What we know:
Layout: E1 3-6, E2 11-12, H1 15-22, E3 28-31, H2 38-44, H3 51-60, H4 62-72, E4 76-82, H5 89-95, E5 100-101, E6 106-120, E7 126-132, E8 135-139, E9 145-149, E10 155-161, E11 170-171
Antiparallel strand pairs: 1-2, 1-7, 3-8, 4-10, 5-11, 6-7, 6-8, 6-9, 6-10
Amino acid sequence: MGVLQLEDGTTYSDIRAIARKLAILNIEVDRLPTQKKSAVQKILLQDILDVTEKQQILAAFNSKFERLKLTSGCQWCDLKVLHPGSPQIYPIMTQSDRTHTHTDAEVLHVLAGECVFGFVYPNGSQVQLMLQAEEYIKVPANTEHWFYLTPSLYLKALQYYTTSRGWVPQYTNRKLKIKN
């Protein structure tokens, strides 16, 4: 279950309450249950996936991707597989945990593990949202935010893209007031 933490320490765990608190930023959050097919669930439990296993996961969620193509203009989908031995861990930990924006929307569906998004409200206050398995977020383009993994360093998530350069971070260098 996701948890939203406000700068004053107040927390929310109801997805509807979280959605209301993030609506000011036009951020969409929701629960998207994963398929209960045992083959997919078994693959999601593994740290390392081969190409065939990644393709199986992508195929299992293709209908969601097709809907996002129509509703959000997404052009392609990628499966992010992160674990403590992943070569992508260091770049993510050093690049995404600073305040930044993107020219495209950032769309992420967490399949396994967890991550944290932080956001800056128009008044400058900050909030953090921990997302867990079966949770979805769409962060609009040009929304000031940051991202990091929880101490487990474990995440499997579908990322949806609209352009090839849309996820390149534009750093804002705002000082973080809230980060666990």
